[in-house]
Amino acid sequence: MRELYAGVDVGGQHIKIGLLTREGEIVDETSIDTDLETPVLKSMGVLAETLKQFASRQKGCCLKGVGVGMAGQVNVSKGMYYSGPNFPGWVNVPVVQELKKHLDLPVILENDANVAALGEHEYGAGKGIDNMIAVTLGTGVGCGIILEGHLYRGSNDSAGEFGHNTIDYEGRMCVCGRKGCVEAYVGARGILRTLKEILADGQDSVFKTMDLSKIKPRQINEAANQGDKVALEVFRKTGYFLGLAIADIANLLNVQRVVVGGGVANAGEKLLGPTLETARKECLSVPSQVLNIVPAKLGNTAGLAGAAYLAMELVHPKEKGMMPR
Amino acid sequence: MRELYAGVDVGGQHIKIGLLTREGEIVDETSIDTDLETPVLKSMGVLAETLKQFASRQKGCCLKGVGVGMAGQVNVSKGMYYSGPNFPGWVNVPVVQELKKHLDLPVILENDANVAALGEHEYGAGKGIDNMIAVTLGTGVGCGIILEGHLYRGSNDSAGEFGHNTIDYEGRMCVCGRKGCVEAYVGARGILRTLKEILADGQDSVFKTMDLSKIKPRQINEAANQGDKVALEVFRKTGYFLGLAIADIANLLNVQRVVVGGGVANAGEKLLGPTLETARKECLSVPSQVLNIVPAKLGNTAGLAGAAYLAMELVHPKEKGMMPR
User: Fold this and answer.
1) Residues B155-185: pLDDT tens digits?
2) What digits encode the pLDDT tens for the residues B248-297?
């Protein structure tokens, strides 16, 4: 029987499910809607049943473990989801315990940014890299940290809050209540603010007469691709801010690679060019020698791939490494 | 025969040498002058001979290994000292190779901030703590990182440059050429600048009529102990800046402890009180729950204790852990 591992990426709208071989090949994928109306424990039961049926369609295969990634605060050793902005009402959910009731399989829960980082590290743009971070740019700024080849979780599973590192302690207000966080510059709201600041200088742009409150980074990217100078400047500046923040990571953690994914990263070289230039210039010379910044490879399957990888690691522990405590 | 390990802390003026048992007890200490006039390889020979003679005075003991800490850029696996501001002319020195020629013992070279962090972790204020950093406040700001119980070195042995993390990308100029580094606020020069800024507000102080160019943090500490309000405000503000920077570390690495040492840390609670208050307030709630900031315990023996510990680890490798590559 071929071993399969399920990776589950629980998002605010959809739950993505993938079945991976031990080699990391995704043999099948599906998704169900995230039902926030139903009591959460019932939703966990539905997820477990879906998983079982979905895996049973793979002939000659045997589901050996399940990894789950969720946005928000988790406790890995307890398999507990504490809370997070995407799932109002889902508080202190014993995710692992509930899924195990239905599945009778090893199950592991992890934070979404951490599984995305693991996915990129094991199968994507961070393959073979010992020390790296994977940054996901979207509404918020997610980050998972891989050090010496292993996921680094920190003292109570909250490591990786790169989005709330300061680049200017008297700077822009962040949603976290603090000033000058990276997220206030390179998250979707931050990018919109940069657009407004540049427009205030009076330059001509397609955005000049638009209602800016509904603009998404995707539209700024499209305008930039059409040659809109303001839009191009938005990405140059966003890259500059991101580069400043990455320079700090390079100084502190001396990582070789920063993998940048998420919707905003679709801007590609317009964003990542200035990011790398700034980061290399602003960090010290020794960490600068080894630093590289690359786009993510796995897109929106990074999370489920990383979650499935964690399940494999649970079933087949490595001799060395940072296992869940 | 009782096993002894030598820890060597090579400073710009003196070379401190300590002999430690496997339990971490310092059985004897000595120091020699750092001779920057003599060719460096000859100096290494003198150090080796001093070590041999010094260890031979311990009856019934046997020197099993030597650890060396030096300020500046090192390559641990090559045992090579590249360069650093304290030792003009000492460039690309094969420290381990030279000492081994004379000593015929396992020798390991490491950065001074890293050995100080190891010393505090193994024998001092970080004992039993899995995730911590040790910050040394002086002219510069040193930092060593211990993650999951082991020294974290980074991709080319330069991790821990906390002093050059940004708190304000448009802020004070740092000696590294970048703006707004932690060191520009909490290093000795930064503290002096804060003093000048506060004095410019016109408050009364013993420093009002003094030549400020020669003031040291020690004198500001003495004045604060005498109740000088400006001096007290200098430490409050320095603590605030340090706390902001530590909040970033807590967000990113979710460390349980920050050990603060070095001359400036002698200010004690006047400095560390505001540091802890700011750090806990400014970091996110989950990392804040586990964060603590404490003064260093080992004083100026942290470096040699950590260096000796590295030598022990070299002779008796742990099964798990981050060994020198």
Assistant:
1) 999 999 999 999 999 999 999 999 999 999 9
2) 999 999 999 999 999 999 999 999 999 999 999 999 999 999 999 999 99
Q: Which of B92, B96, B71, B65 is nearest to B81 (CA)?
A: B92
Are the C-beta atoms of residues A308 and A68 closer than 8 Å to each other? no
Is the pLDDT score of A321 beyond 80? no
Of the residues B80, B253, B319, the best mutation for testing chain A's interface (the one with the most A CB atoms within 10 Å of its CB) is B253
Of A156, A252, A322, the CB nearest to B162: A252
> Are A131 and B145 an interchain contact pair (Cβ–Cβ within 8 Å)?
no
Q: Which residues contact B13 (CB under 8 A, 6 or more apart)?
A: B33, B34
Evaluate if pTM is beyond 0.80: yes
A83 and A137, same structural domain? no
Residues A172 and A273 in one domain: yes
Domain match, A189 and A105 both: no
| Structure confidence at residue A86 (pLDDT) | 86
- The ipTM value here is 0.94
Whether residues A39 and A96 fall in one domain? yes
Domain containing B99 equals 2-112+301-315
How far is residue B304 from each of residues B34, B103, B117, measured CA to CA in Å? 15, 18, 11
Residue B99 is which amino acid?
A: L
- The answer on B146 and B84 residing in a single domain is no
**Strand (E) or helix (H) holding B253:** helix B229-253
- A253 vs B154: CB contact, 8 Å cut-off? yes
Domain count, chain B: 2
Say whether B137 sits in a helix, a strand or coil: strand
CB contact under 8 A, B152 and A157: no
Q: How far B16 CA sits from the closest chain A CA (Å)?
A: 27
Best of A76, A179, A253 to substitute, by most chain B Cβ atoms within 10 angstroms, is A253
Task: Let me know if residue A108 belongs to a domain.
Answer: yes
Q: What is the CATH number of the domain that holds B176?
A: 3.30.420.40
| Whether A251 and B162 lie within 8 Å, measured CB to CB | yes
